Amino acid sequence: MPETAIVIGGSAVGIETAAFLSGFGVDVTLVHRDQRLLEREEPKAGDLAGQYLADAGIQLRLNASAAKARKEGTQSVIGLDDGTEVSADVVIFATGRKPRTSGLGFEQAGVELDARGGVRVDEHCRAGDNTWAIGDVTGIMPFTHVAKYQGQIASAAILGTPTKASYNGIPRVVFSNPEIAAAGLTKVQADEQGISTAAVELDVTQAIARPWTYEREPRGHLGLLADTERGTLIGAWAVAPLSGEWIHQASLAIRAQIPIETLRDQVAQFPTYNEAYQAAMDKLRL
Fold first, then answer.
1. 142 preceded by a cis bond (ω within 30 of 0)
2. What percent of the chain has pLDDT over 90?
3. What's the 3-state SS for the chain?
4. Helix crossing, 12-23 with 43-55: angle to 10°?
5. pLDDT by residue (tens digit) across 140-198?
6. Class of domain 175-283
7. Taking phi first (over 0 means left), then psi (-120 to 50 degrees means alpha), and beta for anything else, what does residue 6 get?
8. Integer Rg of the chain from CA
9. CA-to-CA distance for 164 and 122, rounded, in angstroms?
10. Model confidence over 85-107: pLDDT tens digits?
């Protein structure tokens, strides 16, 4: 491991990389061009992610972008667009990825690409005659679990038993410490779709027992977003230990459109993080 590292990028890959290196004792500086981390998620989730990274000793340089670079001996020096500089043994670019599809002859196969080079597919992952595409190359949701799901969709279509793909409520997890998980829509996305919503945020350390049995210094927040007209859950996020495991309760509720009243009637095992859903539902006003 290097002694020092600069991680450029404040989305999932950047946060995971920074947390991983910091956990092994590396002095990490994370540079992100936005004013908060995870800008595509709910603002509070990004704020909490930054707080916990800072608590772990990671230096955050937000609202800054790498503008130039040079070598000074064994050090890499990055000049930021705010006029300051940061230096480290290694620089890691974790600024996202896009499909590499140019020059593969897709045009001759009748396959269309989007503006970022992603292969356009229909609801059966069909990209053209006798052609299917799955995974990151589609540009839909660049996650391993989505690629596996699309593999099932494409296989079913090829075998003559087609089923339609649905990306509603699929979980998104950042494996940092603590984990950051989300599913469904954010408040901004719901507003753009004209959905009337009600939201609630919960400090799980003040509401349930499990955080106190899991950590010496318990942490954790859960947020829920509901459609007030349909009475269903449409979004959820959590920044808490093991949230990548228990976000699936929200994911299922969103995909199956389970009524809020049914969710309120669930009996959660004590003591578990899942109890946080009941505590949050009690505060949700539709």
1. no
2. 94
3. CCCEEEEECCCHHHHHHHHHHHHCCCEEEEECCCCCCCCCCCHHHHHHHHHHHHHCCCEEECCCCEEEEEEECCEEEEEECCCCEEEECEEEECCCCCCCCCCCCHHHHCCCECCCCCECCCCCCEEECCEECCHHHHCCCCCHHHHHHHHHHHHHHHCCCCCCCCCCCCCEEECCCCCEEEEECCHHHHHHCCCCEEEEEEEHHHCCCHHHHHCCCCCCEEEEEEECCCCEEEEEEEECCCHHHHCHHHHHHHHHCCEHHHHHCCCCCCCCCCHHHHHHHHHCCC
4. 20
5. 999 999 999 999 999 999 999 999 999 999 999 999 999 999 999 999 999 999 999 99
6. alpha beta
7. beta
8. 21
9. 9
10. 999 999 999 987 889 898 888 88
The domain ranges of the chain are 4-93, 106-158, 175-283
pTM recorded for the entire structure: 0.93
Instruction: Characterize the bridge pairing of strands 27-31 and 4-8.
Output: parallel
- What's the CA gap between 24 and 93, in Å, rounded? 19
Contact indicator for 164, 41 with CB cutoff of 8 Å: no
Kindly state the average pLDDT of the residues 14-43: 97
Tens-digit pLDDT profile for residues 219-270? 999 999 999 999 999 999 999 999 999 999 999 999 999 999 999 999 999 9
**Mean pLDDT confidence for 113-121:** 94
Q: What's the whole-number average pLDDT of the chain?
A: 96
Position of tokens 């809020």? 260
Q: Which CATH superfamily is domain 4-93 in?
A: FAD/NAD(P)-binding domain (3.50.50.60)
Query: Are 213 and 275 in contact, with CB atoms under 8 Å apart?
Result: no
Letter for the amino acid at 41? E
